[in-house]
Request: fold
Amino acid sequence: IDGRDKKTQSKAHLSMERFLDFLESDDIELRLVTSKKLNDYRKQASIEQRSESTFRSDLHHLSSMFEFAKRENLLPDHHYNPFKNVKLTNLREGIKRQPFTKEILQMLLRLSINDRDSLQTIYLSYYTGMRISEVFTAKIITEGNVLCLNVAEDGGKTASAKRIIPMH
Reply:
């Protein structure tokens, strides 16, 4: 856990589950993880059309677990971290996410015209740039006589997630 937020913990757990599923095992001693196993794992990820960014993220989490085990003296210091320097070849490129087109926004507005809550959520998200999770967890506050949204008060996905948005 090492002080990480729940989202990071969940991603690390998912990375571990994917690796163990590949190994067809419930657990493995870290000292038994080899470069060969990881190369086979990468080949399988390629066959499954896993994106490079997802695979890179999985390796990062697995490598962090390995380094944690070394810090806790569960592995010898000299033991090489096999999760580092894995060649990332033949993996699918990530899907580029673009903002909604004008046509999509118009369709969303037409579909939600009779649903005031959905309409307000669309406007709020679109004009503030908030993620949908931020829209639903933001707090309304007053800063110097200005009504504001306090977004991601406890931090979020990026360093700039925590912010105050004035409501003009």
